[in-house]
Prior knowledge:
The complex is a heterotrimer of chains A (255), B (345) and C (290). Chain A is of the alpha/beta class and 255 residues long. Chain A contains 10 helices and 10 strands. In chain A, a hairpin with a 2-residue loop joins β9 (221-226) and β10. Chain B has 345 residues and is an all-alpha fold. In chain B, 74% of the residues lie in helices and 2% in strands. Chain B is built from 16 helices and 4 strands. Chain B has a two-stranded antiparallel sheet with strand order 1-4. A two-stranded antiparallel sheet of chain B has the order 2-3. In chain C, 73% of the residues lie in helices and 2% in strands. Chain C has helices spanning 2-32, 39-55, 60-85, 91-113, 138-160, 162-172, 174-179, 184-206, 216-231, 236-256, 262-276, and strands spanning 129-131, 134-136. Chain C has a two-stranded antiparallel sheet with strand order 1-2. In chain C, β1 and β2 (134-136) form a beta hairpin. Chain A binds chain B through residues 51, 72-78, 82-83, 85, 89-94, 97-98, 101-103, 105-106, 108, 110-112, 115-118, 122-123, 125-127, 129-131, 134, 137-138, 143-144, 146-147, 165, and chain B through 2, 4-5, 8, 179, 182-183, 186-191, 193-194, 196-198, 200-209, 212, 215-216, 219, 261, 328-329, 331-333, 336-337, 340-341.
Amino acid sequence: MSKLLEVRGLTKRFGGVTAVSDISYDVGAGEIVAVIGPNGAGKTTLFNMISCFLSPTNGEVYFKGNKLTGQKIPQLAHLGISRTFQNLQIFHNLTVLENVMMGAHVKLKTNVVNAAFRLPRILKDERIAYDLALDAIHLVGLEELMFEQAGQLSYGLQKQLEFARAIVYKPDLIMLDEPMAGLNDYETNRMADYIKKLKSEGSSFLFVEHKMATVMELADRIIVLDFGKKIAEGTPDEIQQNAKVIAAYLGEEVV
Amino acid sequence: MSKLEKILYGNRLKPILFLVGLILILPLVVKSPYIFTILILIGIYSIVSLGLCLLIGYAGQISLGHAAFFGIGAYTSGVLTTSFELSPWIALTIGMVTTFFIAYIIGIPILKLKGHFLALATLGINIIFYILILGLNQLTGGAAGLIGIPSLSLFGVPLTDKLFFYFFVWTAAVLVLLLSLNIVRSHVGRVLRSIHDSEIATETLGVKVENYKVAIFALSAAFASLAGSMYAHYITFVAPPTFYITKSILFLIMVMVGGASSVWGAILGTTVIMFLNEIIRFVGHTYFGISGEVEIVVYGLIIILIMMFLPKGLIHVISKPIQKLKPKKKVSVKAHKDMISQKGV
Amino acid sequence: MELLMQYIVTGLTVGSIYALLAIGFVTIYNITGILNFAQGEFAMIGALTCITFANAGLPISASIILAILISATIGLIVERTAIRHARNTTVIILIIITIGVSTFLKGMGLIIWGTNPKQLAPLIKMEPIHFMGAVINPQSIFIFIVLLILLAVLYVFFEKTYIGSALRACEKNPRAAKLMGINTSTMSALAFTLAAALGAIAGILITPITDATYEMGFLIGVKGFVGMVIGGMHSIPGAVAGALIVGLLETFSGGFISTFYSDAITFLVLILVLFFKPNGIFARASGERV
């Protein structure tokens, strides 16, 4: 049985520096996999390689059995992969509603030509987008702010917005780059609830995160990176007791 | 217009009816042929501004070379109707199609550039075009230009009469406006504005950003070409200085002064600048005795002030109070979902 | 062979003018991130102001110095008014503001000096020199010497003085510079003033060779810009090299192909450079963090 996402021997060298070295792991359907590691471990580089923002020096990624490496970024959404960004890339000048409606793009057939001439397809697409968007907005509880400009929202709400936009079309794999960064406890728990809800509906998650409590609570499996190499992989319990992991984070053996 | 469209974008009919009404009423009020010429030119230049507005305000790109596309239309029409005696309508269409393709092909590599580099590249295109029309003087008349371009005629009626041409130009302008509104008030409009805010995120959502940028670039070029053709048939004479960087900058100023993020801003900006142009020239020549393009001092000053203090353009001065007047929309998800599941909404 | 020599000399002369403008561009760009489309207008202001003073009877050296000072002051005023207020807006708005400044200054030039071209007597009254078969206008040598001297002065300024180092720090990392107590706002004003002065010098140097009009700024400014892009936007030597290349390109294509199309060729080269080596032809590949 092939997994949803297969990462095989991903390596990235920048000139003389090896940022990521020979990483392999899988993500199965309906699984939540977290990637953790100290700063500089190569998590974001790995993430960017999987989401086709960087081309690997070596190695490949497969999604639903097909080769993902080398695809252009727009292709990913059509395959069922979406992602969020560490530095938040919401559309500041669009309303909350418009931001989320953008997430429905892969489900629509609107283009410049049929839009210019206002063919019936356009209205149909607007309804589809609106319908899907309403569901996502309802999930994250942003109904009251639907017509507000996204740029005016607080940081925590913007993160929820980006999340909502990423899940609108119910992707198979959702990649989150530090989804909890900058959130307080309440907001963190809320985001965790959304992730759990979507998992129960069949989505898989791959995320990079620093907040250990959340990672331990949410993840089915955890991958630990240090200096670009995978030093451990396992369930939360296994990882918490892994000596190498403890050493990596604390720098030395803890007696 | 569907209820959904109204919720998302507001009423579309009111401003259109206002504009159409204005277009119909003005000939009754305005008797001076001089002012009529200005109104006609406003119509022609508005077509360019509309396209440029889509490119700059919505897609977030820039062009300092649109006079080149304006010129391709003008010269195609001029040359094909004089040297080759083609019908002006055919020449106009050929002009638009040619410009579209040229802009598309140039656009593919050029729109990979951003910001200053893109501005510089479009500048280069304008200069290359300018030099070409000066150089290929067998075809284009060189520095002396092309004269004797025939007027357009509709159903055998020559559109030399100012009134007829006025209605013709503004019908075209309103059609271009409607086309632009359609684009803007649809998913494509959202896509363009998303590209403006974050190309990366837009790509992640499955949008082939390059294609959209090039498409809008080519479309705006085609609009400029249409305007150029109409210009050629109206003035019946074209010469290179009209199509130099100064014109491109003028187009840019028209769009930014009016407000690039609004299609209505483009028309407003064009109108304001054209009238300002006449007023300043008059004052400058009559009271100060200065000849030449005096008005550029005011253009420069205005665009600086607007970019500093009113970057959203003059249209914002009008639209902001209108927004404040509208009641805040309350949304219940269930009610909305019921609404859109009904047919005909 | 003589022709070649002639082209080289002319090309380097013209290129030196562009180089002075390119240095101004690079300075402003690296310190403020802004591309100053009004750079060419400073040359126009310098040239016309100098001519006005000289024709009014002032000794030439006083006219030159006054012209440079006036241009530098205008550069400062532009920065303090238009630029400073808009520092934090988008790239496109900044581009448009400098275009607006350029248009405004050009218009003021028209109002003050009218449309008739103005002349200045050559600064060096010498017989033309014959060198390797080429006839060299002494003015050309003068221009080249001035460029070299300025480059030397700027080198000392940027590398050896505190202010120069502060300017360079602003270029590398404005935030860190601020934290080190460098006033980036002052640096920005300084950059514009310096660029305006250099532009004025360029304009003054060129007037004995060609006439000065209110329109002269645009094209030479843009060519200085092209030089900067070709040579690399991040270094003064690169920009100078690029500008000299533009000058040579112009002269050679003018000589061998046609003077008429030489500008078109220059811009074609610009576009090709933008496509293939946007960091300049001397740049090594640079990485980018996503």
